[in-house]
Amino acid sequence: MAASLSSLFTIKLINKIPHTSGCLLQLPTCSLHTTSVACKYPNWKMIKEVKNRKAVKDFAFERINVNALRKNKIIPPAIKEIADKEIAALPRNSSISQLHKRCMLTSRPRGLVTRWRLSRIVWRHEADYNKLSGVQRAMW
Amino acid sequence: MKDRPQAFENDKEEKPEQSYDKKIIFQVNHDHHTNERQEASQMGELPVTEGKHDINTDFSCNEKQVRSEDELTMPQDVTVSASKEEQVVKEHSPVEKSDDRRATAQKKLHDLLTSLASADPIPVEPMVRLSRPKARQKKTGTFKEQKKATEQPTESVIEPELVLATKEVAESLGGDVETTESELLSTLRLHSTSTSCDDKPAIQLSDLFVGMKVERNPRKPVKDLPRHKRYDQDTQQSSPRSGVEYQKMWPRATGRPVPRTLARVELFGTEHLDIFNAKSLECKKEAVPTSTLLPVWEVAHKWELQQSVSHPNDNAFTEMIQWTKQGKLWTFPINNEVGLEEEKSVGFHEHIFLEQHLEGWCPRRGPIRHFMELVCTGLSKNPHLTVERKQAHIQWYKNYFAEKEEILKEIGAIETSQ
User: Fold this and answer.
1) Its domain of life (chain A) (predicted)?
2) More confident residue, B212 or B179
3) How many degrees, rounded to 5, is the angle at CA B46 between CA B45 and CA B48?
4) Distance from C-alpha of B102 to C-alpha of B110, rounded to nearest angstrom
5) Which of A55, B5, B60, B269 is within CB 3.0–4.6 Å of B86 for a Cys-Cys bond?
6) Could you tell me which residues are beta bridge partners of residue B158?
7) pLDDT at A29
8) Rounded to whole angstroms, what are the CA distances from B317 to A132, B62, B168?
9) Cα B299 from chain centroid?
10) ipTM entry
């Protein structure tokens, strides 16, 4: 019951509470390990990745506008220089190129199958157990 | 066909007698043998038309009395006129003797037919004498019984003398005269062995029972009858019932349909309660106040309500239903524009013609105008953004260039003499 209830709060209140963990911060009045591990991210690196993605989403509008000013031959160069400075001033995490994909289940940074957001090992495992739609052992 | 003209003479004689034959008229088929036809014409029933009418091929019954009467009247006039002509032609026929024979035959046939028409209907009861149970007062309960009672045209006929006798007996006995009389008559009916050859029309029992009401014992329906009530056990065995007792409770599939007394339901008898109106439901939704003092508790309460109502799925169909409601499964037939219902109301002109937003602030010439036009064309080609987002992009540039106005003027991108 506690686990299922806590899942209600993780999604909505994740913005308000600091991202120390994927789930709701347990107050010091409660004991540790009161919730199951199912709602947590597999890795601290994964949590960082989630924060980066959030930052990218926040600054996407501004970044694209400024980049459009920079990457053209019409705007006078003085404006372009100003634009360069402006974009450098934005947080580094908000850049898309800073993102590094990871496996959703194991947080593996390499060997990913993009469409499923899984590492190759997990992908193979799920495919063998018929959890991936339309995926079949190759045979020809 | 040759003998037909002689038949016309007979037609005239038998016109008044045709009233007897109205019940039984046979319209002979044109394709049958001519002898039969001649006989029919001689009997005076078939209107001899000599092919002027197309005679009906069906063998009529009492239903077609009216039609036959009309047909009789019509061709009669024709035949009369024809007969007159042909009588003039042939006055003295050499077959006068055969006419007499035919006349006698006709008379015989007529007598037979009249006797048949006037005879009483034959009763359905057999002649065999069987042992019968005691007479009981039959109740007008089920519809079937009532129907049977109405459908029986033939009843056992009791002689009027017996009827009078029963009346006298009932009066002499005293007490309830009507009931005793009815009982006696019923017994007589059962034991009567009267045949069909009575000329006198007997008094029908149904006429006697017209004003009387039959006693009815309100019987319990079969379900309510106590089944094997146990008196040896003192304790109440209400909830823990065994499988056998459950089976007894279930309605068994018997051959006889249990007579049910269904209450009459009038759908529109009472006033409209007005509970389940769309308006009332909306008002209820609005009326519920959402207090923000205990948000966590409210969330938990809602969760509990959902859990109490929801159950694990029985089968894959319910699971699919759940998924469609959640939005995981597409609805069929597949709609490519799911989630884009709001976009339908927005016209394409708002997406494409974005130069209007440049009016007022953007210079008419120069690099900035060039740039902004490119921005507008790019946005117009983008189908994934909403109109508000596109307008927001243009607005951002407006604000940006407003901030950099001085620098632009120094450079010479904006013409100062505007």
Assistant:
1) Eukaryota
2) B179
3) 135
4) 12
5) B5
6) B203
7) 60
8) 21, 63, 79
9) 52
10) 0.74
Q: Tell me how crowded residue B293 is: count the other CB atoms within 10 A of its CB.
A: 6
Q: A18 at the B interface (CB within 8 A)?
A: no
Size of chain B, expressed as the number of residues it contains = 418
Q: In degrees rounded to 5, what are phi and psi of residue B203?
A: -70, 130
**Percent of chain B at pLDDT exceeding 90:** 23
Residues of B with CB under 8 A from a CB of A: 299-300, 303, 367-368, 370-371, 374-375, 392-393, 396-397, 400, 404, 407-408, 411, 413
Model confidence band, residue B224 (pLDDT cutoffs 50, 70, 90): low
Copy the structure tokens of residue B152: 């029986």
| B119 close to B200: Cβ distance less than 8 angstroms | no
Half-sphere exposure of B364 (CA within 13 A, CB side): 3
Largest CA distance in chain B: 148
Going residue by residue through chain A, which has 140 residues, state the pLDDT in tens, using 9 for 90 and above: 444 555 554 444 444 444 444 444 544 565 666 666 667 899 899 999 999 999 999 999 999 999 999 999 999 999 999 999 999 999 999 999 999 999 999 999 999 999 999 999 999 999 999 999 999 999 99
- Name the residue type at position B145: E
Contact A82 B375 (CB under 8 A): no
A6-18 burial, b for 16+ CB within 10 Å, e for fewer?
A: bbeebeeeeeeee
Strand duo A112-113 + A118-119: pairing: antiparallel
Using a 10 angstrom Cβ sphere, with 0-12 exposed, 13-18 middle and 19 or more buried, the burial of residue B326 is exposed
Match 């005076």 to its residue by tokens. B44
- Residue B140 contacts residue B146 (beta carbons within 8 Å): yes
Structure tokens of B274?
């007005």
